[in-house]
Design a protein that fits this description.
The chain is 27% helix and 27% strand. With 377 residues, it is α+β, with helices and mostly antiparallel strands. Strands 1-2-3-15-7-18-5-4 form an eight-stranded mixed sheet. Strands 6-16-9-14 form a four-stranded antiparallel sheet. Strands 11-12-10-13 form a four-stranded antiparallel sheet, with helices on one face. Helix 1 links the parallel strand 2 and strand 3. The longest helix has 19 residues. 41% of the residues are buried.
Length: 377
């Protein structure tokens, strides 16, 4: 038997105003992997109970894909999904053409299987900022999916953010400023990773998948970014102006797509997890972040498109609109979460291992931006 529902209070870390994010399809019983055939609404024709989940998803994807646009995401919970191949098969059955790479990604991650990656290799102590995947680029996945291979021992939740609701909730002055000025992401990519930062930044060779500087410069130009080499290639600086409030190409909704690489937000996120960490360790992390900003050495930073700073009160408003429209749920082994990456953002709370979440991407969407003398791809 399969039950469509939404997350209940026992599955949430804290109460939420986003009661219908995501849609949950829950399988119950030992044969639940093969029983998704009794889902969705009363008027749908019941299918044979011995049909495979992949067969069902293939048959029902014309109904399930619109559910993604309505709810922003679908969580398959309680099915007999045990490995990366199951994960990939379901996504292919939904009609997604999975990407073989995620170029210029900020988060360190590893290839786990063909077109399947670890969600992040960022150290457990750091919360990962709310973001839509590759929101710092003008082309980003339309779909991102996560699969829980090993549920965390404690913590390690994935917050979800309703990007439509967050855009609506923004103070009108901040929204107007974002629309007019856009946002510029500045990245600092080293040639080598320092020992103390071995898992919080990518090298320029990792980000671009090559050591050839000419190829990197060509990739930068094609993407509409600008770049500058520093100190004999020891550091690559890139800049990219993006639209933080793009219009979803299918629903027509304005969505807040922004990853707030800003001292204000990072420190507030560390405050968010402070009750779940050793207080001295949390203070050490905050000191490290503040020092990196003081040295202008953060891997990624954010300004308005014209280079002017985004002020603290503006960042606090952006963070409020985002977190006021969030859902924080705990993973269970075998969970498969499929998100519309424009409609729904995600993040990660601090983790107590073991935890292994896999990810995959599909359906690239472009949001060209004309700003100043530059036009993004």
């Amino acid at each position: 038997m399969v039950t469509p529902r939404f997350l209940n209070s026992a599955e949430l870390t804290r109460p939420t105003s986003c009661s219908d994010l995501p849609l949950v399809l829950e399988g119950k019983g030992a044969r639940s992997f093969r029983d998704l055939c009794v889902f969705v609404t009363a008027e749908r024709e019941r299918l044979r109970p011995d049909r495979d989940l992949c067969v069902f998803v293939t048959a029902e994807r014309e109904r399930l894909r619109p559910d993604m646009l309505t709810y922003g995401g679908v969580l398959l919970r309680g099915f007999e999904l045990t490995d990366a191949e199951h994960f990939k098969e379901i996504l292919l059955a939904l009609g997604y053409e999975l990407e073989s790479e995620n170029p210029m990604d900020t988060s360190p991650r590893s290839n786990f299987a063909d077109r399947v990656f670890t969600s992040t290799d960022t150290p457990d102590c750091y919360p990962i900022l709310a973001h839509n995947e590759n929101s710092f680029l003008n082309q980003r996945p339309g779909m991102i999916a996560f699969f829980c291979l090993t549920a965390p021992l404690r913590f390690g939740e994935t917050p979800l953010f309703d990007s439509r609701a967050a855009a609506r909730a923004l103070d009108s002055k901040v929204r107007t400023k974002l629309l007019e000025k856009k946002v510029c992401y500045r990245r600092r990519l080293p040639k080598w990773r320092r020992g103390w930062a071995s898992e919080i930044n990518r090298t320029w060779m990792e980000a671009f998948g090559t050591e050839d500087r000419d190829s990197i410069e060509e990739a930068v130009r094609k993407s509409g970014m600008s770049c500058q080499w520093h100190e004999n290639g020891r550091i690559l600086h890139t800049e990219n102006v993006v639209d933080p409030l793009p219009i979803h190409p299918e629903t027509g909704d304005q969505c807040l797509n922004l990853q707030a690489f800003h001292k204000t937000n990072i420190l507030l996120d560390l405050d968010e997890v402070k009750p779940r960490q050793n207080r001295l360790y949390n203070a050490f992390l905050k000191f490290g972040v503040s020092t990196l900003y003081a040295m202008d050495a953060m891997p990624v930073s954010i300004t308005y498109g014209d280079g002017s700073p985004i002020f603290r009160d503006e960042m606090e408003e952006i963070r409020r609109a985002t977190w006021d429209n969030s859902v924080i749920f705990s993973w269970r082994n075998g969970d498969l979460l499929v998100l519309d990456n424009i409609l729904t953002g995600h993040g990660r709370m601090n983790v107590q291992r073991p935890r292994r979440i896999l990810t995959a991407f599909a359906d690239l969407v472009a949001f060209p931006v004309e700003y100043g003398d530059r036009q993004s791809a």
